[in-house]
Amino acid sequence: MTVAARTLTDQEQRERRAWFRARWERGVAFNRNCRMRMLRWDSDGVEVVLPYAEALSAHEGVFHGGVISALIDTAGAGAVIAGHDFQKGSRLSTVSMSVQYLAPARGREAVAFARCVRRGRRLHFADVDVRMPDGRICARGQVVVTISGERPGVGDPIEPLTEE
């Protein structure tokens, strides 16, 4: 016998979106260690800022390409989950990602602008632009994620950020 999933109220949907926003910033150790911040998080898309740090560099004053790629993955997956219908699950995994580096990522921060461009039953697609403070796009990417099943721990407390 199959048991139907419980219907989530609008309030429960909002609470899950808020929980995932906090998780992206404070609950994912990599994002926290890189000091990523969610500037915007809504169904139309997300903006994620990554401040420059020498530990994230390839050359003096330039972000490492792998860190820019991780920013694209984080923002793209965030754009999908920020507008997701949690009746369809909450366990998200990246399936594929493509990145095009257009210019050196040089500056005090990089900001990823991501939006979900297609929602399927299980596969969801997001486009991401990464801009530098002068407005120049340094990288573009597409992220494909799958969402199915329930992520353990959804709704559990997330530790506040501490100043280091």
TrEMBL record:
Pfam families, A to Z: 4HBT (PF03061)
Q: Which UniProt keywords apply?
A: Hydrolase
Q: Which domain of life is it from?
A: Bacteria
Stretches assigned to the Thioesterase domain: 61-139
InterPro entries, sorted:
ACOT13, HotDog_dom_sf, PAAI_dom, Thioestr_dom
Q: Does the keyword Hydrolase apply?
A: yes
Q: What's the family?
A: Belongs to the thioesterase PaaI family.
Q: What's the protein here called?
A: PaaI family thioesterase
Q: Which organism is it from?
A: Streptomyces phaeochromogenes
